[in-house]
Write a structure and sequence with these properties.
Elements lengths: L26 E2 L28 E4 L10 E3 L5 H12 L4 H12 L6 E6 L7 E6 L3 E3 L2 E3 L1 E7 L5 E9 L16 H19 L4 E5 L2 E12 L2 E9 L9 E9 L5
Antiparallel strand pairs: 1-4, 2-3, 4-5, 5-8, 6-7, 8-9, 9-13, 10-11, 11-12, 12-13
């Protein structure tokens, strides 16, 4: 395996640029200091994927807006499916409503927050409000949730969930016990299985941070609606021990 390049760009994974809602050139409103992190190695588990026949289908009209089209396939009633449905439902809501929906679902108040803003070219200014809060549901654990929202009308256009094994002075919301590579890989695999069952194969994928063993995949859930999954494992020799997974659910129709 070739030697990994140092991934100095991964300063705070909730702010990684990757989609229309994620823009370079951020102006920090409430900055937080974080440490840079090296590259990552992934051990990927190959599980049998469910098919869309395992899921209930129905036509859902999105009322009160002209920006989005109906989505015809629902997620399953599993906890993973419910979380993805929650992230989807938060898109198009105002920030306070989206935060309240997360708090109700996880039974936990979202605290420890920071807000940043970014603008790309002549595009609209977008805010990112991040909460470093431990969230647990049926054995699934996270410790970062991020809402990107449009400054023009305040509508959420992207929701991100993360689990990270940060500890010590760089941990804004440390999990106890710390998640290991097995737990995080299982979570990543579960979300991949659910997403593939509903959306089909990824529309694009690639390596992260120039590391041949680190990867991401992006899926279409409807016009302008995408899901992106990422997995990091820096536990190989020379790494800093970071294990993380990121789940992104974004709706570009609410970006403009």
């Amino acid at each position: 395996m070739r030697k990994k390049l140092l991934c100095t760009l991964l300063i705070l994974s909730v702010l990684l640029p990757f989609a229309a809602c994620t823009k370079p050139g951020a102006d920090v409103i409430e900055p937080l200091t974080v440490a840079s992190e090296p590259d990552v190695k992934i051990e990927r588990e190959e599980d049998d994927l469910k098919t869309t026949e395992d899921y209930t289908t129905s036509a859902e009209e999105v009322s009160g807006t002209e920006e989005t089209e109906a989505v015809s396939i629902n997620f399953s009633d599993s906890t993973v499916g419910q979380i993805l449905a929650l992230m989807n439902d938060c898109n198009g809501e105002d920030l306070d409503t989206a935060v309240g929906m997360f708090e109700e679902f996880f039974g936990t108040e979202l605290v420890n927050t920071a807000t940043l803003s970014e603008t790309l070219g002549d595009g609209p200014e977008t805010y990112y409000t991040v909460y470093y809060t431990v969230l647990e549901k049926d054995g699934l654990r996270f410790n970062v949730v991020n809402f990107a929202w449009n400054k023009v009308d305040g509508k959420v256009c992207r929701v991100e969930l993360e689990v990270r094994n940060d500890e010590g002075r760089y941990a804004y919301s440390e999990l106890s016990p710390l998640p290991d590579a097995s737990e995080v890989n299982d979570l990543y695999t579960s979300f991949t299985n659910e997403t593939v069952a509903v959306c089909g194969d990824s529309v694009q994928s690639g390596n992260l941070c120039f590391d041949e063993d680190s990867y991401w995949a992006e899926y279409e859930y409807g016009d302008d609606i995408k899901i992106r999954l990422e997995f990091y494992n820096y536990t190989e020799e020379g790494g800093n021990g970071l294990v993380a997974s990121e789940i992104y659910f974004f709706n570009n129709s609410y970006y403009y």
